[in-house]
Automatic annotation (TrEMBL):
Superkingdom to which the source organism belongs: Eukaryota
Pfam family, one: LSDAT_euk
TRPM SLOG domain: residues covered: 89-151
Molecular function as annotated in GO: ligand-gated calcium channel activity
Name of the protein described by the UniProt record: TRPM SLOG domain-containing protein
Organism: Adineta steineri
Coiled coil region boundaries: none
One of the record's GO cellular component terms: plasma membrane
Length: 160
């Protein structure tokens, strides 16, 4: 079994056993200054299959702040995979997941080899700007480093 099929199989098993979930915004709350939801996503990026269009339209009052507990919900995981044929694996999971499940997923995928380097990236994009080319080069460099160094890179996709 290849590493990629092992990764997909592990996530499928955790998904089927309800040990791993994703989180999604269920109510569009317009950002006061931008044409996006306060969760950070564009309106078309919200799931229309599980939401009522009325919910998306009713909560456009800019005085109402988005609240994760009220305005998001846990859903079956559907964003995971491998970036390229031998590239880094990714998973978008609920921030309320039991960390042991996530740790075991990663450790099993790495054949029980613990990482030589951990990097955690959290926000910060609003404090600096890069040209699109430089941003792409930077992210590609981080991914190349991660692949070569046996590194785990954890991001929260906040302000990225």
């Amino acid at each position: 079994m290849t590493s990629s099929s092992t990764w997909i199989n592990q996530i499928s098993e955790l998904k089927n056993n309800n040990k791993i979930k994703s989180r999604t915004c269920k109510t569009y709350v317009k950002h006061p200054e931008k044409e996006i939801c306060q969760c950070g996503r564009l309106k078309p990026s919200h799931s229309y299959t599980t939401l009522h269009h009325l919910d998306l339209n009713e909560r456009t009052d800019i005085n109402v702040k988005w609240n994760e507990g009220r305005d998001s919900s846990s859903v079956p995981i559907n964003v995971y995979g491998i970036r390229s044929s031998n590239g880094p694996k990714f998973i978008r999971c609920d921030n309320r997941i039991k960390l042991l499940s996530l740790y075991n997923l990663i450790l099993n995928d790495c054949k029980k080899q613990e990482p030589s380097l951990l990097i955690s990236a959290y926000g910060g994009a609003k404090y600096f700007t890069l040209s699109e080319r430089l941003e792409k080069d930077f992210l590609t460099g981080i991914i190349d480093l991660a692949t070569r160094a046996g590194m785990y890179d954890f991001t929260l996709k906040v302000d990225v």
